[in-house]
Amino acid sequence: MGLLNKSKKKKPLRTTSRGTGGSVSAQRPQQNVKMPPCGSNCPSGNRIRNWIAAIAQREKMGVSEEDSFNQAWHMVVDTNPFPSVMGRVCPHPCETNCNREGKDGAVAINAMERFIGDWGIEKGLALDKIADAEPKTDSVAVIGAGPAGLSFAYQMARRGYPVTVYEKTAKAGGMLLWGIPFYRLPDEVLQAEIKRILDLGVELKLNCKIGETISVDELKAKHKAVFVGIGADQGRLLRVPGEEGPGVWAGTDYLYQINNGETVDVGKKVAIIGGGDTAIDAARAARRAGAEVTILYRRTRTEMPAIDSEVEDALKEEVKIEFLVAPVEVKRDGDKVAAVVVQKMELGEPDDSGRRRPVPIEGSEYEVPIDTLIAAISQQPDFDPLGDLGPEDKWYKADEHGKIRDGLYCGGDALDLGLATIAVGQGRAAAEALDAELRGVKLPKVAELPVIGQDRVRHDLYDAKERAQRAHRPQEEWLSQAEKEIDLGITSVQFLEEATRCYSCGLCFGCERCWMFCTPSCFSKVTDGIRPGHYYNVKLDTCDGCKKCMDECPCGYIDMI
Fold this sequence. Notes:
This protein has helices spanning 37-40, 48-56, 65-79, 83-89, 101-104, 109-123, 147-157, 175-178, 187-198, 216-222, 251-259, 277-288, 308-316, 420-439, 492-499, 513-517, 548-552, and strands spanning 29-31, 140-143, 163-166, 203-205, 225-228, 234-235, 248-250, 269-273, 292-297, 320-323, 325-333, 336-350, 356-360, 366-369, 372-375, 379-380, 403-405, 408-410, 471-472, 487-489, 523-525, 536-538, 558-560. By secondary structure, it is of the alpha/beta class. Mean pLDDT is 93; it is low at 6-22.
């Protein structure tokens, strides 16, 4: 994978292979696949190492560049039908514990995902049904055409089930469509990836409100099972005096209006309350309307849950942020908003979120003159139309597969507020569980592999390489061309080079070190059936237990047992 430095490495002394009496160690090498930290941190369950290996090891496997791209794309969409979308909006937790981070930066997995997703759209690649999947008669309903619902619909359709998605708005996409500005996620990209799911035979009913267009009883009578994937599109206001009336918006409502093509007059000065992604998106949208924007956040920058790069871009667009303040009143001049009164805060002990709790400072109130206030503090789904399909409490209580009871599953914001990539993974998990339920079989257990950490990789055996950086539209165009995408991704040259930065943690990539350093010649090269992780066979009868192979394996694939 990553280019190995073979030039100056001395052979290690065989200091642990024999006891003082000269006896040979009973330990023998074993090739054991382990879980890479990227894969263990991916909520959608993507096999990241595998699809990167398809690119990085293409020449060893005798595969052309285009064919390797095709293989990689199909591996990605096996668990995530939205690679172009997630390559733009996912905060990439997969990169958080990348073993390469300590050397020269984590592998740019998210940028690579976007590239392969865009490549799939450009090539017109289609999603496939699972091989040998028989057509089923059990019809399945999906409430909500967001990431959870569409992920579930895709996984059920590829297993042969007839699926109908009921969406209350005029367009599919859910909070991906209505909650994210187009300069971050172009609509044509989202709709292209949705179309592929519909092309599998998924039926989409738009402007179809449960409880109005179709009753809950009709829905249950028509379908064998129901998946609830509604988004948290109901924004909460602040519960402070003066907020009721014109000029005060919930963040989700404001973004919905913008993405629906409507013009919202926010005046010259806008205050945004909150520190999450919705707050940042609303702030940057208001800047594009020509307003001066100030974010008021009750904690500090350290506690802001918003994606850090989005915060940085907002600051570049001259969005101001005032920390350690919270609103206590909205003042009006007649019907119009005139100011928001805020109170200074200080941080106390951590609360249930793990962040330090903001504590009001007595007598510290002051006014911030504004024309519009946008509250982006929290949001929740509207469960009321679901009747007896709705949760008994504020949120659904489901098992690890999203099962509420037989024939009723859920995922995404219906379970709790979370990332879009979490919703995608929950949709897939629910589909796998419901498929097993409808077929009357047990859900197969997935073997839990140990996650390979820093102590098992040899950083020194990989050449240092600069991490790929995404290109961006010139900053002077960001506000003047409001809906044009800012992040332009990486090039094909960067994509190919970035693939070679992957350590292939826990899986052989054919570096040859075990073969080169093994004196008894235990390792022989595979000639037929070469594939990632399968480059060498081991002959244990010639092994003397010297451990050189394990010590020299850069990716931690070899253990001594």
